[in-house]
């Protein structure tokens, strides 16, 4: 009752510099299916109905959860629903969406993760198919699949070392990235201190340089940043503490493992970078399914206990074969072309809809007016 009119005003608003409202509506929020669909039906039918038969404006849902999702994401009246995983595909089917309404490409992520220099990820890009527009977009954004010279583990190590140098951290040292989200939440202080102490204890006591490295991204949590910068770290671990960063793709590609809360975007981005994930916190319900996604895909686990987190990361770094298996599993789960695949399909849908509108308008204009009884010509 309270949302209908404000939503309607928004959907009727002219788009950009045009005098017309949007030709398509794309929802990326779980609470923006039912009401917008009813409003579009009302607008398209000139107020005659709010039922699904009154709507002609295309409506698409792009689900931005990963391993689990609230039921309100899924409305059988949508034209198309993009889901990122098998688990959410099943959720959509359980909510009565037809198979023809569903497309599964992966989770849309930030542009910095579209490009990759890893051949394993490039292979995943190539398998997603598509032609024409997607290939042009891929070339424009320099997908790793177009960089065949980057093959070989030696090349990958060189690129990681170059990134570490660019970021101002030690090169060729096992590196763990600890992330607390944009707000720096998730017990990042205790987690970082416990992990840093464990890595220092694991370090080679006879070495004159750190054996391990930890990068901490505190986001907007200035207290966490200040506390960690002032902490007396041991000589066996080099610690780099950051606030908010806008180049997370580089920090991930410069690391060997990540400790993070179970946000779907971070997990998808980490998989593209081949990063084993230790999930340290999650939002009950909303992010709980992401724990199973990472575990079942074989590139990580969950613990909210800082001591267990430290012990687990230590065991990963002590086993290069385990770390490589997890890295490969992460790359198998990666969907680096999902954003462009979704964008291409949306463009195809919009062009098809506009084409139908044009044909319908042409037929209407070319059809002669029907003669009424009073206008008939009598021979």
- Strand residue percentage: 5-15%
How many β-strand runs? 10
* Class inferred from helices and paired strands: alpha/beta
Strand order of the largest sheet: 7-6-5-8-9-10
Helix proportion: 40-55%
State the distance separating the first and last CA atoms. Answer: 61 Å
Which residues sit in consecutive blocks of at least 5 with pLDDT less than 50? 116-151, 372-379
Biggest β-sheet description: 6 strands, parallel
- SSE succession: HEHEEHEHHHEHEHEHEHEHEHHH
- Principal-axis shape: elongated
By DSSP (H or I, 4+ residues per run), the number of helices equals: 14
What is the radius of gyration computed over CA atoms, rounded to a whole number of angstroms?
A: 26 Å
Mean pLDDT: 86
Please describe what this structure looks like:
By secondary structure, this protein is α/β, with parallel strands linked by helices. Helix content is 44%, strand content 12%. The strands form two sheets. Strands 7-6-5-8-9-10 form a six-stranded parallel beta sheet, with helices on both faces. Strands 1-2-3-4 form a four-stranded parallel beta sheet, covered by helices on one side.
């Amino acid at each position: 009752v309270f949302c209908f009119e404000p939503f309607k005003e928004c959907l009727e608003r002219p788009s950009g510099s045009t005098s017309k409202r949007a030709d398509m509506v794309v929802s990326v929020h779980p609470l923006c299916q039912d009401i917008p669909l009813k409003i579009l039906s009302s607008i398209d039918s000139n107020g005659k109905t709010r039922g699904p038969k009154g709507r002609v404006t295309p409506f698409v849902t792009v689900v931005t959860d990963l391993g689990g999702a609230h039921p309100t994401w899924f409305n059988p009246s949508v034209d198309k629903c993009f889901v990122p995983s098998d688990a959410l595909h099943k959720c959509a089917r359980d909510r009565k969406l037809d198979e023809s309404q569903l497309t599964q490409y992966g989770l849309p992520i930030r542009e910095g993760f579209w490009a990759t220099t890893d051949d394993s990820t490039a292979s995943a890009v190539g398998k997603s198919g598509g032609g024409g527009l997607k290939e042009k977009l891929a070339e424009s954004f320099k997908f790793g699949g177009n960089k065949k010279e980057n093959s070989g583990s030696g090349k990958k190590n060189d690129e990681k070392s170059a990134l570490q140098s660019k970021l101002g951290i030690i090169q060729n040292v096992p590196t763990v990235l600890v992330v607390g989200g944009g707000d720096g939440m998730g017990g990042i202080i205790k987690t970082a201190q416990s992990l840093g102490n464990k890595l220092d204890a694991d370090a080679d006591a006879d070495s004159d340089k750190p054996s391990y490295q930890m990068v901490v991204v505190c986001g907007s949590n200035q207290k966490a940043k200040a506390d960690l910068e002032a902490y007396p770290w041991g000589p066996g671990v080099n610690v780099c503490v950051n606030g908010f960063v806008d180049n997370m793709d580089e920090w991930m590609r410069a690391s060997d493992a990540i400790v993070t809360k179970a946000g779907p975007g971070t997990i998808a981005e980490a998989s593209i970078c081949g990063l084993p994930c230790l999930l340290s916190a999650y939002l009950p319900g909303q992010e709980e399914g992401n724990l199973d996604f990472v575990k079942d895909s074989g590139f990580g686990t969950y613990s909210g206990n800082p001591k267990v987190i430290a012990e687990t990361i230590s065991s990963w770094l002590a086993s290069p074969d385990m770390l490589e298996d997890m890295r490969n599993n992460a790359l198998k789960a990666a969907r680096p072309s999902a954003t462009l695949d979704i964008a291409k399909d949306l463009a195809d849908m919009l062009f098809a809809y506009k084409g139908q509108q044009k044909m319908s308008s042409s037929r209407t204009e070319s059809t002669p007016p029907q003669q009424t009884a009073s206008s008939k010509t009598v021979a």
